[in-house]
Specification:
heterodimer; A: mainly alpha; 8 helices; about 75% helix; elongated; B: mainly alpha; about 0% strand; globular
Chain lengths: ~210, ~190
């Protein structure tokens, strides 16, 4: 087929270009992955007692997941579109994680020295990052699916961003099933789970996002 | 339009055509793709001096990718930058594929001169997309042939095949996507 014939073929009956494709696909990925993660968290691990929601720490966890997911979702959508600017959402994503780490460090310093190990490790430090990682898997799958329908020209970075988004959703979902209340615990172990999801995404990106 | 047009001329000529094409104007789309093909040929030829025979194949592969990804162009950003970013991505992908294949194949240096392939004419690719099209699953191939080669409307194609209009659109898109994958996997 000559190039001219290909051009005629592509243009014929082409119709209008899809509108807001990146936002629609990433939005669908977030909705689908989020619902699955919440169902798994509440169904398989079990919700915490409702009275815990009177504690500000519960809201700190949920806000961390939400804020990080919002920034990372924009980052992923931009990475799915060639030449779209990615600096601002990348910085916003990093800023959310750094702010939580700083708050965690500050809260640890405010705790009496004898109680610091407890505030850092709680009773579920090993379970937490693994649960966040496990709950991130649905969104990692849907996020990579969303990117496969877009045009990521930096597959590793796009995979990492999708992993961070998935980790944020996993952290948000796990917050409903986790009774740890120390901000330092959240800062370290939730972030560790999100980082694991990001690493998995960065590994998968170059493998799954070729086009 | 010449290959040596400054990028800004390319952008200013392309932008209004592209806006109409994105809104669904077929003729503007064909003309935009023609201008893009000329620019791509120049861009790739300069960067593929060791693979002159593959230039037109990569022009076609890039055009197919541009079509499939046209929903990722943001009207705020220059079309030319978006086009060349995709071309560059396709070029890097080709180098990577060739890098692996070169391990398996004899390097060109060892070929007798008479066995070295002759550079193809502009517009003529080595890989024939029509042949790859024939290998698509029936439903996808039929949808593409009816709407994009025979030029039937989606409604007519739906009537002819008994499939719904949205099914035809989906088969066309999936078929072109699969075609692009086959192009990548065909040396």
């Amino acid at each position: 087929m000559k190039t001219e014939e290909l051009i005629q073929m592509l243009a014929r009956q082409a119709g209008p270009a899809p509108q807001a494709l990146a936002a629609r696909r990433v939005g669908a990925a977030l909705g689908g992955g989020g619902l699955l993660a919440l169902a798994a968290s509440l169904g398989a691990i079990g919700p915490v007692a409702g009275s815990l929601f009177a504690e500000p720490a519960m809201w700190f966890k949920l806000a961390y997941g939400l804020a990080l997911a919002a920034a990372a979702a924009i980052w992923v959508a931009r990475l799915g579109r060639p030449v779209a600017p990615t600096h601002a959402p990348q910085r916003a994503t990093a800023a959310v994680a750094l702010a939580v780490l700083a708050l965690g460090a500050a809260s640890l310093l405010a705790v009496p020295a004898g109680a610091r190990l407890d505030a850092l490790f709680g009773h579920s430090w090993l379970q937490c990052p693994l649960a966040v990682l496990a709950l991130s898997l649905p969104t990692l799958a849907t996020g990579l699916w969303a990117l496969r329908g877009l045009a990521p020209t930096q597959p590793r970075r796009a995979g990492f961003a999708a992993g961070v988004l998935a980790g944020a959703v996993g952290a948000f979902a796990y917050a409903f099933a986790c009774d740890e209340l120390a901000p330092s615990f959240v800062a370290v172990w939730y972030t560790a789970g999100i980082a694991l999801a990001g690493a998995l995404g960065a590994w998968l990106g170059p493998r799954w996002l070729r086009w | 339009m010449s290959l040596d047009d400054a990028p800004d001329d390319f952008e200013s000529g392309l932008k209004p055509l592209w806006a109409r094409a994105q809104a669904g104007d077929e003729r503007a789309y064909a003309e935009a793709l023609q201008r893009i093909a000329v620019r791509l040929r120049g861009y790739l030829r300069r960067r593929m001096q060791s693979l002159p025979d593959d230039v037109e194949d990569l022009v076609q592969e890039t055009l197919l990718a541009l079509h499939l990804q046209r929903g990722t162009h943001d009207a705020q950003l220059p079309v030319s930058r978006w086009v060349l970013a995709i071309a560059r991505h396709k070029l890097v992908d080709l180098w990577r594929r060739r890098g692996r294949q070169d391990v398996l194949h004899d390097p060109w240096d060892e070929l007798e001169e008479r066995d070295v392939p002759i550079a193809a004419d502009a517009g003529a690719a080595q890989r024939d997309l029509l042949k790859l099209l024939e290998q698509l699953p029936d439903a996808q191939r039929t949808a593409i042939v009816l709407t994009k080669i025979d030029g039937l409307s989606v409604a007519e194609a739906a009537k002819r095949t008994g499939a719904s209009e949205s099914a035809i659109k989906v088969q066309v898109h999936r078929g072109l996507k699969r075609l692009a994958e086959q192009v990548r996997n065909t040396p």
